[in-house]
Task: inverse folding
């Protein structure tokens, strides 16, 4: 009897032991299982900031005030004022995709900072097309999107805190005035280990 | 022995003081704005969370650009801070979920006894319905 019970317990425990040995598994990007670190901007922070900016921008109705919708957007400089090396496309691309899907705005890929096109081939074809037809077909951007990412660190005892501010401005290309501005702050707190680095 | 009892009691009082903070509020009694409340359908699988944070109501409005905006009022039934995450899902007129590249699981917290609003804006004008998922952290 005892043997049977022992064997049953062992048999039931095997899947847990085997499962526990698995070294990697998939998690939902930005989901509640994502790794959270205080000293870095995590993927869920970019998703959260992009979502907040997009929702706020769409709700403001600023993009609806163009003569011929959808509005055309050019991406300007996103300044990285954090101590990390980050790719700001992690923020801007999500905003661009969301705005395009909303039907409210389209982003130009043939115009960029310092005359550098994001898509040089598209720019070449566009210029060729204009030359062949002898007329300007390029639609100038209605708005530019610029911003800054700032990191603020605070420490008290073994508690570490980092605040990441995602600041964005939508500027009317004709007037040069910011018609929408948004800021999303994400604060993370954690304890520094007593031993180690 | 007496000292031990006193120290234990002091520790419990300290815990009670630091662990429980609730919120007092004041607002205008004569409201100018009228909330357009919508009837809601709830599925509770986490009774532990439901006992702590309850849904007071849902109201909606349209943005100037024709997007659905939803606001949910939550109430912390406990005297201590509660942490949770939520995520908005949006559906079109055919009931199909609309994929949104920036649809995060948003971590949030609510103070003891606090009434809090969370809101979401539909990603496209095609969104007609919504669902919000809540998970206790």
Result:
């Amino acid at each position: 009897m005892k043997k049977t019970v022992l064997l049953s317990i062992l048999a039931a425990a095997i899947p847990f032991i085997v499962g526990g040995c698995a070294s990697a598994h998939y998690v939902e990007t930005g989901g509640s299982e994502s790794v959270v670190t205080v000293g870095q901007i995590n993927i869920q922070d970019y998703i959260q900031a992009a979502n907040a900016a997009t929702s706020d921008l769409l709700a403001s109705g600023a993009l609806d005030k163009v003569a011929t919708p959808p509005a055309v957007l050019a991406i300007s400089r996103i300044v990285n004022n954090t101590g990390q090396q980050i790719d700001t496309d992690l923020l801007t691309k999500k905003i661009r995709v969301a705005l395009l899907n909303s039907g409210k705005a389209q982003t130009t890929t043939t115009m960029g900072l310092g005359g550098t096109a994001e898509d040089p081939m598209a720019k070449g074809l566009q210029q060729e097309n204009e030359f062949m037809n002898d007329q300007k077909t390029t639609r100038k951007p209605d708005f530019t999107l610029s911003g800054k990412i700032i990191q603020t660190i605070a420490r008290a005892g073994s508690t570490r805190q980092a605040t990441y501010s995602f600041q964005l401005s939508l500027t009317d290309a004709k007037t040069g005035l910011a018609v929408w501005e948004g800021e999303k702050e994400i604060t993370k707190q954690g304890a520094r280990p007593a031993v180690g680095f | 022995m007496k000292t031990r009892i006193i120290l234990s009691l002091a520790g419990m009082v300290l815990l009670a003081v630091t662990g429980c903070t609730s919120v007092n509020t004041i607002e205008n009694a004569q409201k100018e704005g009228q909330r357009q409340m919508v009837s809601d359908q709830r599925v509770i699988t986490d009774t532990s969370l439901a006992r702590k944070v309850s849904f007071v109501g849902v109201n909606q409005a349209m943005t100037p650009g024709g997007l659905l905006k939803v606001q949910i009022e939550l109430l912390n039934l406990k005297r201590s801070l509660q942490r949770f995450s939520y995520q908005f899902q949006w559906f079109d007129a055919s009931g199909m979920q609309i994929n949104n590249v920036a649809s995060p699981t948003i971590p949030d917290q609510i103070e003891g006894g606090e009434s809090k609003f969370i809101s979401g804006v539909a990603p496209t004008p095609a969104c007609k319905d919504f669902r919000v998922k809540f998970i206790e952290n």
